[in-house]
Give the backbone structure.
Amino acid sequence: MTDPTPILLMSVRAAEKLPVLHEKLPGERFVVVDGPGQIDRALAELPAPEIVFGMRSGAIPIEDYHRVRDLPSLAWWHVAGSGYEWMTPWNRERLRVTNAAGVLAPFLADTTMGAIIALNNGLLAYREDQRSRRWAPVAFPPLEGQCLAVVGAGAIGQALAHRAQRFGLRVVGLTRSGAALPGFDTVVPLSQLDAVIEEADIVSCHLRLAPETENMFDAGRFARMKPGALFLNSARGGHVDEPALEAALRSGHLRGAWLDVFRTEPLPAESPLWEVPNLLITPHASDQVEGWTQRFAAFFADNLLRYRAGKPLINEIR
């Protein structure tokens, strides 16, 4: 029996993944691309890769990913992470694509719940008070009884819904189908978004980025939202018209917001968003649990064993 074709690993922090991969996959060999200017060397060593374990990073040019994606030898690409919009379009007749949706969902849901509490309970203002050595307690509304709209009820949205219900929030999920899901008080079709956000106290976005969701939250949508509502986005920056959100926050129409993702990342130093007082900014870090790279590696290793055995792959994108 011949050794299997080596796997192309396109990922920053590859050194953190390799020990897990070697432990779980003895006998497999990996060719690594973990930065710019490495793709020619890698394809000289492995000119006809069959499998790619790829994690999107600005450190690797998008052209390098697409160059590999279009190779006729490629049969399977596993995306480390849940978002795969950067992979499109691919030849679905030739190339199978899987992702790691759900692997870090509990941790991202924890962070989102923390952001909801921080915004609702006024903790951002206390941060400024601390800097000014000012003692000024302010009352906050109880979370119990408030309405949380979870826009996109995949693995992350469902994990958030379960946590939110424990705090007494009424949780409305929005999905394309509107089919019932556990953990939600109600699930409605995404086509009813405008009606839902008019009544929701908190709106949290967990959608995949697609042409139909680009700029989904624009000036019109923010104007529709309930005065004093909170807005959160940890999905993709392309969902949000950032100047429109800034205007809604500065006017006081929205009480607060949390952004973990942005149209340009890292967020440029000159961005006016840095100066919005009722906006919580985090650096695309909502799921950065300790050992997250190793978790992605372990998930891929399990899927590779299924691939080698001819079994159905987990999280295959149809």
